[in-house]
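This entry is passed on directly below:
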Amino acid sequence: MTGVILGPNCLSTLRSILAPSNTFFRIGKWATAESSACQTRCLQKRGINTSTIKRVRPNYPSLRPAQRQRTRRCLGNEPSSPYSSSSRIPNPPPKLSFRLAAASCGKGRKFSRHENTYPFDPSAADPLGLEYGFHLSERRLDRRNSGEDAFFVSKISRDPDRIAFGIADGVGGWRDSGVNPADFSHGLCSQMALAATRWPEDFANLAPGKLMHYGYAAVLHDENIGAGGSTACVGCVSADGRLQIANLGDSGYLLLRTGRVHHYSNPQTHAFNTPYQLSVVPPQILARASVFGGLPYLDTPSKADVSENTLQEGDVLILATDGVWDNLNSQDLLQIVKHGMSESGGWEQNAHRGIEVTEGLKSLTEPATPEADLKGTLQSALAASIVSAARNASLDQKRDGPFAKEIQKHYPQDGWRGGKVDDICVVVLVAVNYDWPTNETRPYTPGQDPGEMEVDQMVVDDDTRPK
């Protein structure tokens, strides 16, 4: 007995098939009462006994749809089945590559767009933010102009299609105990960069929360870091556009898509100006706190907020410490990025469709000439513009930023006005389409043979056939 599925276009399918009298038809879940009647009349005109037809009441909740079976075939080797619901081959998902740059400015220091911008070069062997040396005096020589803030950007398992990145903000309160807060934040970012570079497993096993955990564990076992703490915001991204971010504390991220805020993080705080934080607390401080009270916060990576998004070409992701968020809000950053993307030609305004990604975006994220460096690229310019705007806002005593508005709400008697001077650190990511070589065939799924693709076919359940 022959089995045929009748879907939305069942009538046209039926007219194109000369069915034998003993053919069994199953009315799919899309059928309506009207289409079912038309099918019956058509069958009767062709001399088919309609009593052998298994009828299904439309929209009946207990119905099982026809079994969806995924088959693999080599294109051009087999003809498509006349009973297939569709012979159209789905387009392969686009592959993305990522252009990243960091920029920073220490508290009370001057900011130079050229000197304090650090683009990430995927062809380089070493990640950004990696410290060298055994003693702290040696490690401090490699630190950027970021004060107690730190950042890192690293390939995962040295694969340029998989990138890990993050920022950390040292908790300044440790200065009262004679501790340099920068040692913890820079040490944490260095350990996460090292862990990502040496990661031996697949990307699916390297979530940002796990990377934060490994970095934190390494800091806890580092005898050079006896005390300290920091917030952390860590991301992992792969060529299929999958983005995962783990955020602990009041650092955070903002994802922009063609002139709009697509997603953003919320700060985690125990109280006003008291963020969640990873910490190394010496035993003597714990003992003193147990007697006099005021135990320090001992947050762990498991408390981080984890989110997942799928990036598209032209997306701009911003990771920033509270030196940015205390002085600029999401709309301020959106305007900075919109201006930079529009002026450079990465985004353009369409009269009917709004802001769109231009074809020249990828070239803007690459050096203009082989001799030029990456500091003149779009991602570097965006990072520098955000740091510059945040620094200017922090020094403006006439414009109340987000921090000023919050402190006025909690402590109106303090009379706080203007910005908040602090260390500033930013990592910017721009997603662009992967440049496929001309002799390379786009695979449908990673690891699949380039000549193979998947085709959906609708088949009849064996248990629905008449006995």
Remarks:
- The longest strand covers residues 159-170.
- Confidence is low (pLDDT under 50) at residues 1-35, 54-89, 437-467.
